[in-house]
Amino acid sequence: MTTATQFSSPGCSCCGEYATYLREYLDVELDKRSPSDVNSIKQQYGVPDELLSCHTLVLDDFVVEGHVPVEAIATALDQQSVSGIALPGMPAGSPGMPGEQTEPFTIYEFSSGTVGDVFTEL
User: Fold this and answer.
1) CA distance 54 to 87
2) Name one Pfam family in it (predicted).
């Protein structure tokens, strides 16, 4: 079982919904934290400003920013070719967010504060 820590924006309800989603669909032991300065956590893990969302998930040395579906997380962990992936913003219908998906979710690669290529679209 993988150990994961989710750093959430204080008072954000969708972060709790995403944590519930992760516990249901990933084999992880999840530690959920709400630091007063979540942006410093994002900087520490090299999340580019263009890709920010309301929470950051750290699985060992791998970083997931935002409401990324577990399919993309599993693929990235299997490939081990990137240091992080992100679904910027808080798109409707993404895991933990209300509403219906109206367009594909574009998930990006990133490393050390730099946006990489599109990792996948779901």
Assistant:
1) 10
2) DUF411
**pTM for the structure as a whole:** 0.95
- The parent domain of residue 83 ranges over 2-121
Contact 27, 2 (CB under 8 A): yes
- DSSP string of 27-78, one letter each residue: -EEEEEE--TTHHHHHHHTT--GGG--SEEEEETTEEEEES--HHHHHHHHH
Tokens 């989603």, residue?
21
Question: In this structure, what CATH number is given to the domain that contains residue 101?
Answer: 3.40.30
pLDDT band at 1 (very low <50, low <70, confident <90, very high): low
Number of domains forming the structure of the chain: 1
* Angle, CA of 39, 102 and 119, to the nearest 5°: 55
Q: Which of 2, 29, 10, 24 is nearest to 96 (CA)?
A: 24
